[in-house]
TrEMBL record:
The keyword Ribosomal protein applies. GO terms for molecular function: structural constituent of ribosome. One of its GO terms (cellular component) is mitochondrial large ribosomal subunit. Keywords: Ribonucleoprotein, Ribosomal protein. The keyword Transferase does not apply. One of its GO terms (biological process) is translation. Gene3D superfamilies: Mitochondrial ribosomal protein L55. InterPro entries: Ribosomal_mL55, Ribosomal_mL55_sf. This is 39S ribosomal protein L55, mitochondrial. It comes from Drosophila mauritiana.
Length: 107
């Protein structure tokens, strides 16, 4: 009831202007235009296409069944997290401060 009595300028609750921005991508089911996109095939070759969503690059998955056993094992090992190697070096400490006391001037 109250909104019907107010003028049109006062009824506007959300201020839409050119300064309004979106933090994430626009959530549309259908995009109006096609966007230039790079498709990377499993062998590393690239193709420039027009895609319906705004993306820069699309990487196609590699079929592991077509690889040899050695290549498959190497790819699966590369997926696993690497263990951190700790190098513990023992430094031989034979420093003797009394040897250098003669160079220190006493005031």
């Amino acid at each position: 009831m109250l909104l019907k009595q107010l003028p049109q300028a006062v009824q506007q609750i959300r201020c839409i202007s050119s300064a309004t921005t979106a933090v994430t991508r626009l959530h549309r089911s259908v995009y109006c235009r096609l966007y230039p996109t790079v498709v990377v095939q499993p062998d590393g070759s690239t193709i420039n296409i027009r895609y319906h969503e705004p993306r820069k690059i699309i990487k196609l998955p590699l079929d592991l069944s077509t690889l040899t056993d050695a290549e498959r094992r190497a790819r699966l090992e590369a997926r696993k997290p690497r263990k951190k190697v700790r190098i513990m070096e023992e430094v031989e400490d034979n420093f003797n401060a009394k040897k250098y006391m003669k160079y220190i001037k006493k005031k």
